[in-house]
């Protein structure tokens, strides 16, 4: 099954290609020359933003279009950065710096339980002019006390996952892909697509 994954984030593409396995051929926006088009993610929920991306790019291809909207929700920061995870603190700032600033904002929070956070991912697919959503993926953890690990992307170096006693950035991709919010969301999406007669 051929799909367009409507994302400008190459790290998401790598993760989702590994998750998809052999049944799916995933094209990125870049692969189809569609990365020159930009869409404003002006929704107020992860679901809205995912569907804005899928709908927009489905106008440019006949393939089913998959999109992911995701982010880090930090309880101590009242849910920030949440749906604004990509734009948080300004587009110009590197994720390395965004992570550092979050750690600074939380330096007085010494009780790990008050550092609770979760990654959330909503995946959807635009298929035959309809948008199909699967249940959102979410993984609970804590904001670490320091940045750790070289792998992953975005906020992975400060997202501590207690069951494995490491941050997401300390995990090889195949391990993160057994746990993550994105794995959970796409596992359901790919199963739905495999069982859909119209794809
Ligand atoms: P597209 O919209 O083009 O897909 P994006 O990176 O802007 O790419 P989002 O709008 O979904 O994606 O923003 C999500 C941000 O949340 C992303 O840029 C990361 O900083 C962060 N994020 C999401 N999933 C993550 C993960 O698995 N690990 C680390 N950070 C993640």
Any idea of the CATH topology?
Maf protein
Number of strands: 8
The CATH class designation is: Alpha Beta
Average pLDDT, to the nearest integer?
96
CATH architecture: Alpha-Beta Complex
Quote the beta fraction: 15-25%
SS field, number of helical segments: 5
Distance between the termini: 7 Å
List the bound ligands.
inosine 5'-triphosphate
Based on helices, strands and strand pairing, what is the structural class? alpha+beta
Report the major sheet.
8 strands, mixed
Tally of separate domains = 1
- Shape, please? globular
Low-confidence region ranges? none
Which percent range fits the helix content? 25-40%
- Quaternary organisation of the protein chains: single chain
Q: What is the string of SSEs from the N terminus onward?
A: EHEHEHEEEEEHH
Radius of gyration: 17 Å
Task: Kindly describe this structure.
Belongs to the HAM1 NTPase family. Its EC number is 3.6.1.66. Substrate binds at residues 7-12, 70, 153-156, 176, 181-182. The active site is at residue 69. It catalyses: XTP + H2O = XMP + diphosphate + H(+); dITP + H2O = dIMP + diphosphate + H(+); ITP + H2O = IMP + diphosphate + H(+). With 199 residues, the protein is of the alpha+beta class. It has one domain (2-194): Maf protein, CATH 3.90.950.10. The chain has helices spanning 10-20, 46-58, 95-105, 173-176, 181-194, and strands at 2-5, 25-28, 65-74, 116-127, 130-133, 137-143, 159-161, 166-167. A hairpin with a 4-residue loop joins strand 7 and strand 8. Helix 1 (10-20) packs across helix 5. The chain is globular, with a radius of gyration of 17 Å. The model has no long low-confidence stretch (mean pLDDT 96). Inosine 5'-triphosphate (ITT) binds next to strand 3.
């Amino acid at each position: 099954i051929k799909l367009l994954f409507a994302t400008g984030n190459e790290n998401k593409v790598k993760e989702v290609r590994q998750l998809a396995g052999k049944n799916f051929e995933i094209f990125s926006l870049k692969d189809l020359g569609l990365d020159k088009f930009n869409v404003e993610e002006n929704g107020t929920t992860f679901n809205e933003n995912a569907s804005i991306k899928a709908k927009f790019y489905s106008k440019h291809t006949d393939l089913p279009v998959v999109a992911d909207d995701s982010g880090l929700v930090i309880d101590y920061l009242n849910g920030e950065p949440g749906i604004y995870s990509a734009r948080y603190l300004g587009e110009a700032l590197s994720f390395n710096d965004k992570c550092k600033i979050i750690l600074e904002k939380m330096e007085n929070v010494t009780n790990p339980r008050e550092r609770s956070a979760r990654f959330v991912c909503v995946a959807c697919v635009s298929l035959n002019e309809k948008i199909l959503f699967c249940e959102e993926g979410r993984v609970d953890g804590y904001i670490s006390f320091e940045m750790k690990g070289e792998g992953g992307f975005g906020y992975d170096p400060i997202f501590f996952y207690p069951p494995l006693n490491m941050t997401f950035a300390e995990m090889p991709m195949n391990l993160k892909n057994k746990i993550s919010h994105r794995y959970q969301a796409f596992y359901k999406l790919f199963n739905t697509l495999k069982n859909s007669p119209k794809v």
